[in-house]
Amino acid sequence: MTTEPGPASATLLIVEDDRIINDGLAARLRAEGFAVTQAYDGPGGVAAFEQHTPDLVVLDVMLPGYDGNEVCRRIQALRPVPVLMVTARDDESDVLVGLTVGADDYVTKPFRVREVVARIRALLRRVERARELAREVPTRIELGSLAVDASARRVWLEDTEVHLSPLEFDLLLTLAAAPGAVRTREDLMREVWGWADARGTRTLDTHVRTLRAKIGASRVRTVHGVGYAVEPA
To answer: pTM for the complete prediction?
Structure first.
């Protein structure tokens, strides 16, 4: 059990219809030092998000009212926020849908609470690192017809704005900061996700897939056995 205190200003929203899981997770997260708000269905999750403006959302996929993907779509339209999806199946198609509508990471039921806490801390650290990176790189990066505005967190392709999830944007910005340079999988998982050891996870590959679908497959180059690079043009 980790004893590291949660960030003093971090407020979490748990949207989970199983009250035993919801209440148990909420109790653990409060013990970790987080402020926690709870909701038990889709509409209640969106309403709680609007009322409490949480720093991160833990969101179940299967919910009454409307499902977690619809909740994620609605809250990301209101304000970009890190979302940790909870799914009952480790099905790649389910995961891709969640990531496409704005989720940042996912865990599969049954999960260990310790793992959820670790994922939450990593996502919150990622937000801080993203702010630091935005201050370090040029305000606007031009990669041929692709433009990335670091300070405004906006992306354009052929003068049309591309809507990325917060994590997709952070991944693109990390790669675009050094166009053409290959970043290893380990570096990307550490710098973008905050994971010291990401062996066995498909999270990076899945996010690269969703990013390619939005900005063009040829713009993100795979170097097999090493990592990825964004082409300069």
So the answer is: 0.71
